[in-house]
Structure formats: C-alpha cells, structure tokens
Amino acid sequence: MFNRCRFDNSINLKRIRQPENKKYPAPVFRLPLPTQPMIQIHTLANHAPVALHIKRNTQRNIIIRARDASSLNLSIPKWFSPAQLQNWLRDNEATLIRILQQAPAALAGQPETLPPSILFTGEPYALRPAPVAQIERCDRQRLFRLPQQSNPAEQRDLLRQHLFQAADATLLPKFAAHSQRLQLIPAAISLTYAKTFWGVCRARTGIKLNWRLICAPASVQDYVCIHELCHLRHPNHSRAFWQLVRQHHPQSPAAQAWLKQHGKTLFSLG
C-alpha cells in the first residue's frame, strides 16, 4: 500500500535548498550502486528496528511503501541530506508505524531465510546447518557450518559476527602493511558497518574500511586499502590521485570492475 507524504506535511522544504558544490577536504569512496537501494536501520521510539530501503529520485515528494511488518521502501529527493532524513523520520514516526501496521499479513509472518552460499575472500562458500555450537569455517571444503539449533535470524547474526572478526584479523593487518610500505599513516584505522561506501578517509578521524570487504578477493581488498591511503596525499579524485593509486596498485581497473559487478552480492547478509 502506497502512502505519499508531501514535504510540507512535516518539513517546510521550500526553505531547504539543494546544497551548493563545496570542496570537501576528505572525499568518500562510495559504493558503485546506482540502482541499488541503500539499506538503513532506523530505530523507533519503542526501540523496534525498521529496515529502510532508500532510493533517491528527482521528485519533491517522499513516498513510503511497506515491504513487510519490519521494513519499508522509502523514496526521497536526491538532495535530501542524512540530517534532514533523520529529522523527517523522527517527526513522522506515527506515519511509519501506521504504514508498517498495514503491511500484508502474508508478508508479516514470512520467515527469514539465508542464501545458500556467500562469498568469502572472493570464493563461494556454502552455508550448511550442522550440530555445532558456533560458526565453523571449513576452507578446504569452502563452507560454513551453522548451528542448526538456531533460527535463520540468529544464524545470520552469528555469521555476520564471524565475518566481522575475520575482517578485523585480516583487513586491518593488511591495511597496516600497505600504510607502512607507502609511508602514508592515517590518524586511525577501523572497520565500519556502513552500507554506502567501501572505505572513507578523513583527516581528523582516519580511515574506515567496510567489514564486508573480507568477502572480496585479496586484490580488491588491497585496492580499497591503497585507494583510501592515497587520499591522505590527494584529498580528491584528481588525475594525480589516480596516477598514485595505479602506481601502487596496477590492477586497480580490474578491482573496480569486480566491485561494480559483484559488490551487491557482499550485502547478502545485510
């Protein structure tokens, strides 16, 4: 069921203009997902999480449609900032709850399922329930054993936790090695759950890498690490920046192509 919310119902958007182009000192290497909705978890006042599948458009209206009892499709103007979106969600929470309550009954009771396989370091790994107490990764057989006594939602959470720990043990040391080799040292390095970029470089707060990169091939992981490190010298996407990236990672075009073709699959677990 569609619910069309006009801007002047919540925010006087006539006074909110599209921001002018500014030269930001710390660029963001964003996901190549031109048609893929961004998924954001929004927490209601009653602490209930709602998955928002957000698309940007050229219209001046916000359009909401229920996917199921715990997620919504949300179409917003392309210039709507994250702060404006958060304000709108807060001011229109009653509308969000009403639309969620109108979700089709068949969808509301639909059980969560896992994909039959996921990528890990660029290779497909099967997901198999087994009599185990925690996630077990079998590299020789290329499979993950999941606790069969857990439901799909719990298995998904355990698997995400396992992959995050693998990223912490693999991606961060890899990044540190590249940093020392290039003699480009950020203020800090950490992993992020972000769903809009693979990596981000900020002069003050350092560099963050998306934990889902543990699912990409090693050469792609190397590319993102080097890409973000090069932003420390060139805080832009100038010709000099790309020359520096290719100097330290000649296979960067192939890595970019892999992300463009397979990047969406790294979000199979959310």
CATH architecture of the largest domain: 2-Layer Sandwich
What portion of the residues fall into strands of 2 or more residues?
Answer: 25-35%
The portion of residues assigned to helices is: 25-40%
Tell me the CATH superfamily of the largest domain.
Metalloproteases ("zincins"), catalytic domain
Q: Order of SSEs, N→C?
A: EEEEEEHHHEEEEHEEEHHH
Question: Mind telling me the C-alpha Rg?
Answer: 21 Å
**Highest-level CATH class of the largest domain:** Alpha Beta
Question: Whole-Å distance between the termini?
Answer: 24 Å
Number of helices: 7
How does the major sheet shape up?
5 strands, mixed
Average pLDDT rating: 82
Poorly predicted runs of 5 or more residues: 1-27, 29-35, 105-111
Principal-axes geometry comes out as globular
Number of strands: 13
Could you describe the 3D structure shown?
With 270 residues, the protein is an alpha+beta fold. It folds into two domains: 21-108, no CATH class; 117-267, 2-Layer Sandwich (Zincin-like), CATH 3.30.2010. The chain is 33% helix and 27% strand. The chain contains seven helices and 13 strands. It has helices at residues 82-91, 93-101, 105-108, 152-182, 218-230, 239-248, 252-262; strands at residues 2-6, 28-30, 38-43, 49-57, 61-68, 71-77, 117-120, 123-130, 136-138, 143-147, 189-192, 197-202, 206-210. The strands form three sheets. The chain has a five-stranded mixed beta sheet. A four-stranded mixed beta sheet has the order 2-12-13-11, with helices on one face. A four-stranded mixed beta sheet has the order 7-8-10-9, with helices on one face. The longest helix is centred in the middle third of the chain and has 31 residues, at 152-182. It is globular. The relative contact order is 0.13. The model is unreliable at 1-27, 29-35 and 105-111 (pLDDT under 50).
